[in-house]
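Problem: given the chain below (205 residues), write out its structure.
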Amino acid sequence: MEGSLRKVQFLSIDLETTGLNQKKDEIIAIGAVPIIGTRILAGESYYRLLRPEKFKHESMKFHGLDPARLKTAHDFSEIAEEVADLLRGKVLVGYAIELDYGFLKRALKREGYKVENKRIDVIDFEKAVCYILGERPVGEMTLDNLAKKYRVEVSYRHNALADAFITAQIFQVQLLKILKYGIKTIDMLFDLIKRVERDRQYHIF
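Solution.
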């Protein structure tokens, strides 16, 4: 994948689910915020609630969504096509993104859609930022700690769209930082992240 980072189409995504088991649990909310280069397109944000086959009441403490609110929500099959279109051609951005991507990929596969997106986890990106700038990490790399470091306002959490927007803003600042240090293309960014992953002697591991 080549091209200027300022022209790449990114998509910050976040899900709410009934649990963390991709084989048994279900998606109940999808939030997504498009980004082109360093520009967040908040006006084109995407948010859908989904009706699960089985609701886990214990998961409410994390997402706050109750069965009554989800009773009239979409079934994933009803929005699969628009979700597949939303993801097409995008580099996905997220916090602990592999979990969300796994849920989406599995759900789309059941509806006959195959997705293969490049992904950037803001945790891995933060390690790369610290590496190239010689900065100390924020400590435990929670979404809240990253938001605090980059002065991103956090007024509402554990809502898929709110968390996707927080993540988009963190990613935006991270991107601006590495652009100043000569990382100009998406290939260079992925190479940097991989290089940091390989460097097990780096102080943040």
